[in-house]
Specification:
By secondary structure, the protein is α/β, with parallel strands linked by helices. It contains two helices and five strands; from the N terminus they run E-H-E-E-E-H-E.
């Protein structure tokens, strides 16, 4: 599972806990009947977590995205590290991570029909 994580100024520990529980609990992997009934633990899957501040882009005005909602590094880095720790704890094993703020080349082979956008500010 590849997770691209955008962190905004208003994010907090409760958001992290909710997201990690939701991610690990999502039944998005096929069972023996080809029905999405398994979560990542059931399917013995792995997670790669990449910080991606550009997910917080605002594109309402003009054609140049604004990243004003993205948390600054002094807030985002501790929250990213907390998210990594919480996700590993919830998953029950280590996850792969990128380097916060680095210019990384990440390839994705989307082998399946599932791509989900989750927003901890939209829990209901």
């Amino acid at each position: 599972m590849l997770i691209l994580l955008g962190i905004e100024e208003a994010d907090n520990k409760e958001d992290i806990k909710w997201l990690c529980n939701k991610i690990v609990g999502l039944r998005i992997f096929d069972d023996e009947n080809g029905v999405m009934n398994r979560n990542i633990i059931d399917s013995e899957g792995e997670i790669l977590l990449i910080s991606q501040f550009t997910l917080m882009a605002s594109y309402k005005k003009g054609n140049r995205p604004s990243y004003i909602r993205a948390a600054k590094p002094d807030i985002a880095i501790p929250l990213y590290e907390m998210f990594c720790d919480e996700l590993e704890s919830t998953l029950g094993k280590p996850i792969g991570t990128g380097t916060f703020g680095a210019d990384m080349k990440v390839e994705l082979l989307n082998d399946g029909p599932v791509t989900i956008c989750m927003d901890s500010k939209n829990k209901e």
